Amino acid sequence: MFKYNKQIAITVIASSMMLLSGCGLFNTDQATKEIDPPQDEALTEDGKSLDTEGKSGAESSSKDITGEEAEKTTASQLFLIDKSGFVVPYTMNLPETDSIAKQSLEYLVEGGPVSNMLPNGFRAVLPQDTQVLGVNIKDGTAIADFSKEFNNYKKEDEAKILQAITWTLTQFDSVETVKIWVNGHEQTEMPVNSTPIPDGASRMDGINHDSSEVVDITNTQPLTVYYMAEADEQQYFVPVTKRIDNKETDPIVSAVEELVKGPALSSGLLNDFQDGVKLLSAPKYEDGKVTLDFNDAIYGSFDEKQKIISSSVLQSLVLTLTEQQGIDSVAITVNGKADLINENGEKLTEPVTRPSKVNTGSF
């Protein structure tokens, strides 16, 4: 149940649109042979055009580029490195193209087209002058072929680079696994620090790993949760892969417990969950919806009589749980009653789906 959810909805219910997309976020076949020509760069395994909406909920829009004419753009989720060294999703409107997977990687190159669009404190992940020679997608695997300049990174950035490439490409529904090639040659390990990737990389491998509290990693399994971070007085969300004991049988409960416990103190990440937050009963799962029943502590600093739930608490729960396979939406009750409202005073009468875009806009 830890596999990335393949059924993310691309729209958010009206009662939670502002809460999830506008509050405290950014505003804005052989190894030695060359990969297939550019016409295959954005194809799914059945030869159809790559779904540009995919997991990121990408959509076309118009943006004033020259002041005289508008250019059609497509929203794509890029994974960049923030000032604390975390790999973070950042949704950006890119020029419309038939090769959005290839284009997304091109916008990860330092000194490339992303340079003038980066939020303060963020940086691109791929070495300067790296060229994306092609992205070929077949049977759920994306082969990303880079020029030799790809090898020019510092070894301490290797894991971040691999994670950024993997999570950027797996935003698309047709991609489960990512393989790295350099100049048409498959890499079974990363070129600088020899991180093994014999079968490719996937979201199952995690991101921003935190195993600080783990004694025996062999008896654990990965679980990705979303914590808050802050830059320029704006909040955004950072996925962190924790390790939980193999004896834990309910990943939904484990995810809630990790969110309540909060991030490692040394991480610099933030936690808006108050002490004492507890689930009063086992989560209920039905047809993609999970229902969580909390005690009054879920209200946090708000007066429990107002029945307000913090937007950051709600977003952390929704982002975290919809990473799990089969979960599309989250409903929250308190003491068995579904009469919560969000910070905008709107009643949460429907389950909340994952926002189509995570960390949108600019600082």
Automatic annotation (TrEMBL):
This protein's record includes keyword Signal: yes
Compositional bias annotation for Basic and acidic residues: 45-70
Domain (GerMN): residue spans on this chain: 101-191, 252-343
SMART domains reported for this sequence: Germane
Chain intervals for the UniProt region annotation (Disordered): 31-70
InterPro entries registered for this protein in UniProt: GerMN
UniProt keyword list: Signal
Signal peptide: 1-21
Entry keyword ATP-binding: no
Top-level taxon: Bacteria
Protein's UniProt name: GerMN domain-containing protein
Source species of the chain: Metabacillus rhizolycopersici
